[in-house]
Protein backbone atom coordinates (compact mmCIF):
# COMPACT_ATOMS: atom_id res chain seq x y z
CA UNK A 1 0.00 0.00 0.00
CA UNK A 2 1.35 3.40 -0.97
CA UNK A 3 2.46 5.75 1.80
CA UNK A 4 0.00 8.58 2.49
CA UNK A 5 0.80 11.96 0.97
CA UNK A 6 0.00 13.66 4.28
CA UNK A 7 0.52 12.08 7.68
CA UNK A 8 -0.32 14.19 10.71
CA UNK A 9 0.51 12.69 14.11
CA UNK A 10 -0.62 14.17 17.42
CA UNK A 11 -0.43 17.69 16.04
CA UNK A 12 -0.86 20.41 18.62
CA UNK A 13 -0.52 24.16 18.34
CA UNK A 14 -0.81 26.53 21.27
CA UNK A 15 -0.73 30.31 21.07
CA UNK A 16 -0.09 31.23 24.68
CA UNK A 17 -3.03 29.80 26.62
CA UNK A 18 -5.11 29.21 23.52
CA UNK A 19 -5.02 25.72 22.05
CA UNK A 20 -5.68 26.27 18.35
CA UNK A 21 -5.07 22.66 17.31
CA UNK A 22 -5.31 19.92 19.89
CA UNK A 23 -3.75 16.51 19.33
CA UNK A 24 -4.99 16.07 15.78
CA UNK A 25 -3.99 13.01 13.74
CA UNK A 26 -5.06 12.04 10.25
CA UNK A 27 -3.69 10.76 6.99
CA UNK A 28 -4.49 11.68 3.41
CA UNK A 29 -3.94 9.12 0.69
CA UNK A 30 -2.46 10.09 -2.65
CA UNK A 31 -4.85 11.14 -5.42
CA UNK A 32 -7.64 12.06 -3.01
CA UNK A 33 -9.45 15.29 -2.37
CA UNK A 34 -10.01 15.70 1.34
CA UNK A 35 -12.08 18.36 3.03
CA UNK A 36 -11.01 20.03 6.26
CA UNK A 37 -14.21 21.24 7.85
CA UNK A 38 -15.10 23.17 10.95
CA UNK A 39 -16.60 26.43 12.10
CA UNK A 40 -14.68 29.65 12.56
CA UNK A 41 -11.82 29.10 14.99
CA UNK A 42 -11.94 25.33 14.59
CA UNK A 43 -8.25 25.25 13.62
CA UNK A 44 -8.49 24.71 9.86
CA UNK A 45 -6.27 27.62 8.79
CA UNK A 46 -3.73 26.88 11.53
CA UNK A 47 -3.62 23.24 10.43
CA UNK A 48 -3.10 24.26 6.80
CA UNK A 49 -0.46 26.77 7.94
CA UNK A 50 1.39 23.98 9.75
CA UNK A 51 1.13 21.68 6.73
CA UNK A 52 2.75 24.41 4.66
CA UNK A 53 5.46 25.18 7.21
CA UNK A 54 4.11 28.71 7.75
CA UNK A 55 3.26 27.88 11.35
CA UNK A 56 5.52 25.69 13.49
CA UNK A 57 3.69 23.09 15.62
CA UNK A 58 4.01 23.11 19.39
CA UNK A 59 4.20 19.33 19.25
CA UNK A 60 3.47 16.47 16.91
CA UNK A 61 4.80 15.69 13.47
CA UNK A 62 3.76 16.33 9.89
CA UNK A 63 5.04 14.21 7.05
CA UNK A 64 4.31 15.41 3.53
CA UNK A 65 5.30 13.38 0.47
CA UNK A 66 7.49 11.30 2.74
CA UNK A 67 9.41 14.25 4.21
CA UNK A 68 9.29 15.59 7.75
CA UNK A 69 8.00 19.15 7.31
CA UNK A 70 9.75 20.25 10.49
CA UNK A 71 13.15 19.45 9.05
CA UNK A 72 12.96 19.10 5.28
CA UNK A 73 10.13 21.30 4.09
CA UNK A 74 12.39 22.73 1.34
CA UNK A 75 12.43 19.28 -0.28
CA UNK A 76 8.67 19.17 -0.80
CA UNK A 77 7.67 22.83 -1.19
CA UNK A 78 8.48 22.78 -4.94
CA UNK A 79 5.77 20.08 -5.29
CA UNK A 80 3.17 21.89 -3.21
CA UNK A 81 1.17 25.05 -3.60
CA UNK A 82 -1.71 26.81 -1.94
CA UNK A 83 -4.35 29.46 -2.17
CA UNK A 84 -5.88 31.31 0.72
CA UNK A 85 -7.95 34.44 1.29
CA UNK A 86 -5.44 35.36 4.00
CA UNK A 87 -2.72 36.16 1.48
CA UNK A 88 -2.61 38.17 -1.71
CA UNK A 89 -0.39 38.56 -4.70
CA UNK A 90 1.40 41.90 -5.12
CA UNK A 91 -1.34 44.28 -6.19
CA UNK A 92 0.75 46.61 -8.35
CA UNK A 93 2.12 43.83 -10.50
CA UNK A 94 0.09 42.66 -13.46
CA UNK A 95 -1.32 39.15 -13.48
CA UNK A 96 1.32 38.10 -16.01
CA UNK A 97 4.15 39.61 -13.91
CA UNK A 98 2.92 37.84 -10.79
CA UNK A 99 2.72 34.50 -12.57
CA UNK A 100 6.18 35.10 -14.07
CA UNK A 101 7.75 35.80 -10.68
CA UNK A 102 6.16 32.73 -9.12
CA UNK A 103 7.05 30.63 -12.16
CA UNK A 104 10.70 31.51 -11.59
CA UNK A 105 10.40 30.85 -7.85
CA UNK A 106 9.11 27.36 -8.65
CA UNK A 107 11.83 26.89 -11.28
CA UNK A 108 9.40 26.18 -14.13
CA UNK A 109 10.47 25.51 -17.69
CA UNK A 110 8.66 27.07 -20.65
CA UNK A 111 7.16 29.63 -18.35
CA UNK A 112 5.55 31.71 -21.11
CA UNK A 113 3.78 28.60 -22.42
CA UNK A 114 2.70 27.62 -18.92
CA UNK A 115 1.24 31.08 -18.29
CA UNK A 116 -0.60 30.94 -21.64
CA UNK A 117 -2.07 27.60 -20.57
CA UNK A 118 -3.18 28.92 -17.20
CA UNK A 119 -4.66 32.03 -18.83
CA UNK A 120 -6.67 29.79 -21.15
CA UNK A 121 -7.81 27.40 -18.41
CA UNK A 122 -8.79 30.14 -15.97
CA UNK A 123 -10.01 32.65 -18.58
CA UNK A 124 -7.44 35.26 -17.58
CA UNK A 125 -6.63 36.41 -21.11
CA UNK A 126 -8.66 39.58 -21.01
CA UNK A 127 -6.88 40.90 -17.89
CA UNK A 128 -3.49 39.19 -18.03
CA UNK A 129 -1.71 42.53 -18.37
CA UNK A 130 -3.86 44.40 -15.89
CA UNK A 131 -2.56 45.23 -12.38
CA UNK A 132 -3.91 42.73 -9.87
CA UNK A 133 -5.37 45.62 -7.84
CA UNK A 134 -7.74 46.42 -10.73
CA UNK A 135 -9.39 42.99 -10.71
CA UNK A 136 -12.73 42.07 -9.23
CA UNK A 137 -12.79 39.77 -6.20
CA UNK A 138 -13.79 36.81 -8.38
CA UNK A 139 -11.03 37.52 -10.91
CA UNK A 140 -8.48 37.71 -8.10
CA UNK A 141 -9.62 34.35 -6.79
CA UNK A 142 -9.13 32.87 -10.27
CA UNK A 143 -5.64 34.39 -10.44
CA UNK A 144 -4.84 32.97 -7.00
CA UNK A 145 -5.96 29.53 -8.19
CA UNK A 146 -3.89 29.90 -11.36
CA UNK A 147 -0.85 30.72 -9.22
CA UNK A 148 -1.64 27.72 -6.99
CA UNK A 149 -1.72 25.38 -9.98
CA UNK A 150 1.14 27.00 -11.92
CA UNK A 151 3.70 24.44 -10.79
CA UNK A 152 1.27 21.53 -11.26
CA UNK A 153 1.56 20.61 -7.59
CA UNK A 154 1.36 17.07 -6.34
CA UNK A 155 -0.21 18.44 -3.17
CA UNK A 156 -2.55 21.39 -3.35
CA UNK A 157 -3.87 23.11 -0.22
CA UNK A 158 -6.87 25.33 -0.75
CA UNK A 159 -8.48 27.56 1.82
CA UNK A 160 -11.92 28.67 0.60
CA UNK A 161 -10.93 28.26 -3.07
CA UNK A 162 -14.17 29.52 -4.60
CA UNK A 163 -14.95 32.31 -2.14
CA UNK A 164 -15.96 35.52 -3.94
CA UNK A 165 -16.78 33.68 -7.16
CA UNK A 166 -20.21 33.83 -8.74
CA UNK A 167 -21.98 30.43 -8.88
CA UNK A 168 -21.19 29.94 -12.55
CA UNK A 169 -17.45 30.65 -12.21
CA UNK A 170 -17.27 28.64 -8.98
CA UNK A 171 -18.84 25.68 -10.78
CA UNK A 172 -16.31 25.94 -13.62
CA UNK A 173 -13.45 26.12 -11.10
CA UNK A 174 -14.71 23.05 -9.24
CA UNK A 175 -14.87 21.26 -12.54
CA UNK A 176 -11.31 22.32 -13.26
CA UNK A 177 -10.11 21.07 -9.87
CA UNK A 178 -11.84 17.72 -10.40
CA UNK A 179 -10.31 17.42 -13.83
CA UNK A 180 -6.85 18.44 -12.58
CA UNK A 181 -7.04 15.94 -9.75
CA UNK A 182 -8.00 13.14 -12.15
CA UNK A 183 -5.39 14.11 -14.76
CA UNK A 184 -2.46 14.53 -12.41
CA UNK A 185 -3.44 12.18 -9.60
CA UNK A 186 -2.70 15.12 -7.30
CA UNK A 187 -3.81 15.26 -3.70
CA UNK A 188 -5.99 18.18 -2.66
CA UNK A 189 -6.71 19.32 0.88
CA UNK A 190 -9.56 21.74 0.92
CA UNK A 191 -10.94 23.94 3.68
CA UNK A 192 -14.36 25.25 2.81
CA UNK A 193 -17.60 26.39 4.38
CA UNK A 194 -19.49 25.46 1.24
CA UNK A 195 -20.85 22.02 2.03
CA UNK A 196 -22.16 21.42 -1.49
CA UNK A 197 -18.64 22.07 -2.76
CA UNK A 198 -17.21 19.63 -0.21
CA UNK A 199 -19.77 16.95 -1.08
CA UNK A 200 -18.97 17.34 -4.75
CA UNK A 201 -15.18 17.41 -4.54
CA UNK A 202 -14.14 15.46 -1.46
CA UNK A 203 -13.75 11.73 -1.08
CA UNK A 204 -12.99 12.15 2.62
CA UNK A 205 -13.74 14.78 5.23
CA UNK A 206 -11.95 15.66 8.47
CA UNK A 207 -14.19 17.49 10.94
CA UNK A 208 -12.57 19.89 13.40
CA UNK A 209 -14.15 21.63 16.33
CA UNK A 210 -12.34 23.91 18.79
CA UNK A 211 -9.04 22.56 17.59
CA UNK A 212 -9.93 18.89 18.01
CA UNK A 213 -10.71 16.37 15.34
CA UNK A 214 -14.24 15.23 16.10
CA UNK A 215 -14.96 12.96 13.15
CA UNK A 216 -13.80 11.87 9.75
CA UNK A 217 -14.96 9.76 6.86
CA UNK A 218 -16.50 9.90 3.43
CA UNK A 219 -19.26 12.55 3.14
CA UNK A 220 -21.87 9.88 2.40
CA UNK A 221 -20.72 7.80 5.37
CA UNK A 222 -20.90 10.83 7.70
CA UNK A 223 -24.37 11.71 6.45
CA UNK A 224 -25.50 8.13 7.11
CA UNK A 225 -23.79 7.97 10.50
CA UNK A 226 -25.49 11.15 11.72
CA UNK A 227 -28.80 10.13 10.18
CA UNK A 228 -28.97 13.28 8.08
CA UNK A 229 -29.67 14.10 4.45
CA UNK A 230 -26.86 16.54 3.74
CA UNK A 231 -23.35 17.29 4.91
CA UNK A 232 -24.51 20.73 5.95
CA UNK A 233 -26.88 19.15 8.47
CA UNK A 234 -24.02 17.01 9.80
CA UNK A 235 -21.88 20.15 10.07
CA UNK A 236 -24.61 21.91 12.05
CA UNK A 237 -25.08 18.91 14.33
CA UNK A 238 -21.39 18.92 15.16
CA UNK A 239 -21.12 22.70 15.46
CA UNK A 240 -24.13 22.86 17.81
CA UNK A 241 -23.44 19.66 19.72
CA UNK A 242 -26.95 18.52 18.81
CA UNK A 243 -26.44 14.86 18.25
CA UNK A 244 -23.82 12.20 18.52
CA UNK A 245 -23.47 9.54 15.87
CA UNK A 246 -25.07 6.33 17.05
CA UNK A 247 -25.10 2.81 15.80
CA UNK A 248 -28.85 3.18 15.27
CA UNK A 249 -28.41 6.29 13.20
CA UNK A 250 -25.72 4.62 11.19
CA UNK A 251 -28.13 1.77 10.46
CA UNK B 1 23.62 18.02 1.37
CA UNK B 2 25.35 20.83 -0.50
CA UNK B 3 22.27 21.07 -2.69
CA UNK B 4 20.14 21.39 0.39
CA UNK B 5 21.83 24.59 1.55
CA UNK B 6 22.76 26.05 -1.83
CA UNK B 7 21.10 29.32 -2.76
CA UNK B 8 19.16 29.35 -6.00
CA UNK B 9 20.18 32.21 -8.29
CA UNK B 10 16.93 31.79 -10.22
CA UNK B 11 14.79 32.24 -7.13
CA UNK B 12 16.87 35.22 -6.02
CA UNK B 13 16.55 36.61 -9.56
CA UNK B 14 12.79 36.11 -9.41
CA UNK B 15 12.59 38.33 -6.35
CA UNK B 16 14.75 41.00 -8.01
CA UNK B 17 12.45 40.74 -11.05
CA UNK B 18 9.44 41.23 -8.77
CA UNK B 19 10.84 44.55 -7.57
CA UNK B 20 11.86 45.56 -11.08
CA UNK B 21 8.24 45.06 -12.17
CA UNK B 22 7.12 47.12 -9.22
CA UNK B 23 9.49 50.00 -9.99
CA UNK B 24 8.78 49.90 -13.71
CA UNK B 25 5.10 50.34 -13.16
CA UNK B 26 5.28 53.03 -10.49
CA UNK B 27 6.69 56.47 -11.35
CA UNK B 28 6.42 57.73 -7.73
CA UNK B 29 8.76 54.93 -6.68
CA UNK B 30 11.18 55.76 -9.50
CA UNK B 31 11.10 59.44 -8.57
CA UNK B 32 11.69 58.61 -4.93
CA UNK B 33 14.88 56.77 -5.90
CA UNK B 34 16.61 59.95 -7.03
CA UNK B 35 14.56 62.68 -5.37
CA UNK B 36 16.07 62.68 -1.88
CA UNK B 37 19.71 62.09 -2.83
CA UNK B 38 19.48 64.88 -5.40
CA UNK B 39 17.68 67.24 -3.04
CA UNK B 40 20.19 66.65 -0.24
CA UNK B 41 23.12 67.04 -2.56
CA UNK B 42 21.77 70.34 -3.94
CA UNK B 43 21.02 71.70 -0.49
CA UNK B 44 24.47 70.94 0.85
CA UNK B 45 26.09 72.01 -2.40
CA UNK B 46 24.68 75.49 -2.06
CA UNK B 47 25.59 75.61 1.64
CA UNK B 48 29.14 74.67 0.65
CA UNK B 49 29.22 77.40 -1.98
CA UNK B 50 28.21 79.91 0.66
CA UNK B 51 30.81 78.73 3.17
CA UNK B 52 33.55 78.68 0.55
CA UNK B 53 33.46 82.46 0.58
CA UNK B 54 33.20 82.74 4.34
CA UNK B 55 35.27 80.00 5.92
CA UNK B 56 38.90 79.13 5.41
CA UNK B 57 38.46 75.57 6.64
CA UNK B 58 35.63 74.84 4.34
CA UNK B 59 37.32 76.66 1.50
CA UNK B 60 40.18 74.17 1.83
CA UNK B 61 37.81 71.31 2.15
CA UNK B 62 35.52 72.04 -0.72
CA UNK B 63 33.54 68.94 -1.49
CA UNK B 64 33.70 67.49 2.01
CA UNK B 65 30.09 68.27 2.72
CA UNK B 66 28.79 67.11 -0.64
CA UNK B 67 30.84 63.93 -0.43
CA UNK B 68 29.57 63.39 3.11
CA UNK B 69 25.99 63.88 1.98
CA UNK B 70 26.38 61.43 -0.87
CA UNK B 71 28.14 58.82 1.25
CA UNK B 72 25.59 59.22 4.04
CA UNK B 73 22.93 58.60 1.46
CA UNK B 74 24.61 55.32 0.52
CA UNK B 75 23.98 54.07 4.04
CA UNK B 76 20.53 55.64 4.25
CA UNK B 77 19.45 54.30 0.84
CA UNK B 78 20.95 50.90 1.62
CA UNK B 79 18.87 50.62 4.77
CA UNK B 80 15.65 52.14 3.48
CA UNK B 81 15.71 50.28 0.15
CA UNK B 82 16.10 46.94 1.88
CA UNK B 83 13.43 47.84 4.41
CA UNK B 84 11.04 49.01 1.66
CA UNK B 85 11.56 45.78 -0.30
CA UNK B 86 10.42 43.88 2.76
CA UNK B 87 7.58 46.30 3.50
CA UNK B 88 6.29 45.86 -0.06
CA UNK B 89 5.77 42.16 0.72
CA UNK B 90 3.98 43.00 3.95
CA UNK B 91 1.81 45.72 2.41
CA UNK B 92 0.77 43.37 -0.38
CA UNK B 93 0.18 40.45 2.04
CA UNK B 94 2.51 38.39 -0.11
CA UNK B 95 4.75 36.92 2.59
CA UNK B 96 2.59 33.81 2.95
CA UNK B 97 2.93 33.02 -0.75
CA UNK B 98 6.68 33.61 -0.63
CA UNK B 99 7.29 31.45 2.42
CA UNK B 100 5.40 28.47 1.01
CA UNK B 101 7.26 28.72 -2.29
CA UNK B 102 10.68 27.10 -2.62
CA UNK B 103 12.22 30.51 -1.81
CA UNK B 104 14.24 30.20 1.37
CA UNK B 105 14.53 32.98 3.94
CA UNK B 106 18.27 33.25 3.18
CA UNK B 107 17.45 33.70 -0.53
CA UNK B 108 14.90 36.37 0.36
CA UNK B 109 17.64 38.17 2.30
CA UNK B 110 20.07 37.99 -0.64
CA UNK B 111 17.36 39.25 -3.02
CA UNK B 112 16.57 42.18 -0.73
CA UNK B 113 20.29 43.05 -0.58
CA UNK B 114 20.52 42.99 -4.37
CA UNK B 115 17.43 45.15 -4.81
CA UNK B 116 18.83 47.57 -2.25
CA UNK B 117 22.19 47.69 -4.06
CA UNK B 118 20.53 48.46 -7.39
CA UNK B 119 18.28 51.14 -5.93
CA UNK B 120 21.20 52.74 -4.07
CA UNK B 121 23.41 52.77 -7.16
CA UNK B 122 20.66 54.41 -9.20
CA UNK B 123 19.73 56.98 -6.54
CA UNK B 124 23.14 57.98 -5.22
CA UNK B 125 24.91 57.43 -8.56
CA UNK B 126 22.57 59.89 -10.25
CA UNK B 127 23.09 62.47 -7.53
CA UNK B 128 26.88 61.99 -7.65
CA UNK B 129 26.91 62.71 -11.39
CA UNK B 130 24.75 65.76 -10.83
CA UNK B 131 27.22 67.00 -8.20
CA UNK B 132 29.95 66.98 -10.84
CA UNK B 133 27.77 68.95 -13.26
CA UNK B 134 26.41 71.47 -10.75
CA UNK B 135 29.24 72.00 -8.26
CA UNK B 136 32.30 70.48 -9.91
CA UNK B 137 32.63 68.16 -6.92
CA UNK B 138 33.35 64.56 -7.84
CA UNK B 139 33.27 61.85 -5.23
CA UNK B 140 34.81 59.66 -7.92
CA UNK B 141 38.07 61.61 -7.39
CA UNK B 142 38.50 59.61 -4.20
CA UNK B 143 39.34 56.64 -6.40
CA UNK B 144 39.47 53.14 -4.95
CA UNK B 145 38.81 54.24 -1.36
CA UNK B 146 35.37 55.33 -2.56
CA UNK B 147 34.57 51.70 -3.37
CA UNK B 148 35.66 50.66 0.11
CA UNK B 149 33.60 53.46 1.69
CA UNK B 150 30.57 52.57 -0.43
CA UNK B 151 30.74 48.88 0.42
CA UNK B 152 31.16 49.49 4.13
CA UNK B 153 28.35 52.02 4.33
CA UNK B 154 25.87 49.97 2.36
CA UNK B 155 26.69 46.87 4.40
CA UNK B 156 26.03 48.78 7.61
CA UNK B 157 22.79 50.09 6.05
CA UNK B 158 21.80 46.53 5.20
CA UNK B 159 22.49 45.36 8.74
CA UNK B 160 20.22 48.04 10.16
CA UNK B 161 17.66 47.37 7.42
CA UNK B 162 17.51 43.69 8.31
CA UNK B 163 17.00 44.46 11.98
CA UNK B 164 14.23 47.00 11.38
CA UNK B 165 12.55 44.68 8.85
CA UNK B 166 12.60 42.03 11.55
CA UNK B 167 11.10 44.50 14.03
CA UNK B 168 8.16 45.15 11.71
CA UNK B 169 7.63 41.41 11.28
CA UNK B 170 7.85 40.94 15.04
CA UNK B 171 5.80 43.92 16.26
CA UNK B 172 3.63 44.64 13.22
CA UNK B 173 3.25 47.74 11.15
CA UNK B 174 3.15 49.87 14.29
CA UNK B 175 6.93 49.50 14.34
CA UNK B 176 7.31 51.11 10.91
CA UNK B 177 7.94 54.62 12.22
CA UNK B 178 10.60 53.25 14.56
CA UNK B 179 12.28 51.68 11.56
CA UNK B 180 12.27 54.96 9.67
CA UNK B 181 13.81 56.74 12.63
CA UNK B 182 16.50 54.17 13.43
CA UNK B 183 19.03 55.31 10.85
CA UNK B 184 18.91 58.90 12.07
CA UNK B 185 19.80 57.74 15.55
CA UNK B 186 23.29 56.81 14.35
CA UNK B 187 23.78 59.87 12.14
CA UNK B 188 24.97 62.33 14.82
CA UNK B 189 27.41 59.79 16.22
CA UNK B 190 28.75 58.77 12.82
CA UNK B 191 30.53 62.10 12.32
CA UNK B 192 29.06 62.54 8.87
CA UNK B 193 29.63 66.30 8.66
CA UNK B 194 32.24 66.79 11.42
CA UNK B 195 35.15 64.87 12.94
CA UNK B 196 34.17 62.60 15.81
CA UNK B 197 36.85 64.29 17.89
CA UNK B 198 34.35 67.06 18.62
CA UNK B 199 31.97 64.60 20.28
CA UNK B 200 31.95 64.19 24.08
CA UNK B 201 34.09 61.28 25.30
CA UNK B 202 31.17 58.94 25.97
CA UNK B 203 29.72 59.54 22.51
CA UNK B 204 33.15 59.07 20.97
CA UNK B 205 33.24 55.61 22.52
CA UNK B 206 29.91 54.80 20.88
CA UNK B 207 31.13 56.22 17.57
CA UNK B 208 34.10 53.85 17.74
CA UNK B 209 31.68 50.95 17.60
CA UNK B 210 30.02 52.23 14.43
CA UNK B 211 31.53 51.26 11.06
CA UNK B 212 30.10 54.47 9.61
CA UNK B 213 32.16 56.66 11.96
CA UNK B 214 35.38 55.03 10.73
CA UNK B 215 34.29 55.47 7.12
CA UNK B 216 33.56 59.18 7.47
CA UNK B 217 36.84 59.74 9.31
CA UNK B 218 38.54 57.92 6.44
CA UNK B 219 36.67 60.02 3.89
CA UNK B 220 37.86 63.26 5.48
CA UNK B 221 41.42 61.92 5.57
CA UNK B 222 41.27 61.25 1.83
CA UNK B 223 39.65 64.54 0.85
CA UNK B 224 41.34 66.96 3.26
CA UNK B 225 44.72 65.31 3.96
CA UNK B 226 45.04 63.27 0.78
CA UNK B 227 45.77 60.29 3.03
CA UNK B 228 44.24 56.85 2.88
CA UNK B 229 43.84 55.49 6.42
CA UNK B 230 43.97 51.70 6.10
CA UNK B 231 43.49 51.35 9.88
CA UNK B 232 40.11 53.06 9.70
CA UNK B 233 39.06 50.87 6.81
CA UNK B 234 40.03 47.69 8.64
CA UNK B 235 38.10 48.87 11.72
CA UNK B 236 35.03 49.45 9.58
CA UNK B 237 35.33 46.06 7.88
CA UNK B 238 35.80 44.21 11.18
CA UNK B 239 32.82 45.95 12.73
CA UNK B 240 30.70 45.34 9.64
CA UNK B 241 31.38 41.61 9.76
CA UNK B 242 29.82 41.62 13.22
CA UNK B 243 26.99 43.96 12.18
CA UNK B 244 25.93 42.03 9.10
CA UNK B 245 26.17 38.68 10.89
CA UNK B 246 24.01 40.09 13.69
CA UNK B 247 21.55 41.60 11.19
CA UNK B 248 21.09 38.32 9.29
CA UNK B 249 20.86 36.33 12.52
CA UNK B 250 18.27 38.65 14.04
CA UNK B 251 16.18 38.73 10.85
CA UNK B 252 16.17 34.95 10.44
CA UNK B 253 15.47 34.46 14.16
CA UNK B 254 12.46 36.79 13.89
CA UNK B 255 11.22 34.90 10.80
CA UNK B 256 11.34 31.74 12.88
CA UNK B 257 9.59 33.51 15.76
CA UNK B 258 6.88 34.60 13.29
CA UNK B 259 6.42 30.97 12.25
CA UNK B 260 6.12 29.85 15.86
CA UNK B 261 3.51 32.53 16.59
CA UNK B 262 1.61 32.19 13.31
CA UNK B 263 2.27 35.80 12.32
CA UNK B 264 3.12 35.23 8.66
CA UNK B 265 -0.48 34.56 7.68
CA UNK B 266 -1.71 37.56 9.66
CA UNK B 267 0.83 40.27 8.93
CA UNK B 268 -0.39 43.01 6.63
CA UNK B 269 -3.98 42.72 7.75
Question: How would you briefly describe this protein structure?
Answer:
The complex is a heterodimer of chains A (251) and B (269). Chain A is an alpha/beta fold and 251 residues long.
Protein described:
The complex is a heterodimer of chains A (251) and B (269). By secondary structure, chain A is α/β, with parallel strands linked by helices. Chain A folds into two domains: 6-217, Rossmann fold (3-Layer(aba) Sandwich); 218-251, no CATH class. Helix content of chain A is 39%, strand content 24%. Chain A is built from ten helices and ten strands. Chain A has helices spanning 44-52, 69-76, 95-105, 111-121, 137-149, 167-184, 195-201, 219-225, 231-239, 247-250; strands at residues 6-15, 18-28, 33-37, 59-64, 67-68, 80-83, 155-159, 187-191, 204-209, 212-217. In chain A, the strands form two sheets. Chain A has a six-stranded mixed sheet with strand order 6-7-8-3-9-10, sandwiched between helices. The radius of gyration of chain A is 18 Å and the shape is globular. Chain A starts with 5 loop residues before the first strand and ends with a helix. The relative contact order of chain A is 0.16. The model of chain A has no long low-confidence stretch (mean pLDDT 90). Chain B has one domain. Chain B starts with a helix and ends in a 9-residue tail after the last helix. The radius of gyration of chain B is 19 Å and the shape is globular. Chain B is mostly helical. Classes of the chains: A alpha/beta (251), B mainly alpha (269). Chains A and B meet through helix 1, strand 6 and helix 3 of A and helix 2, helix 6 and helix 12 of B.
Descriptive labels:
A: alpha/beta; Rossmann fold; four-stranded antiparallel beta sheet; B: 269 residues; mainly alpha; 12 helices
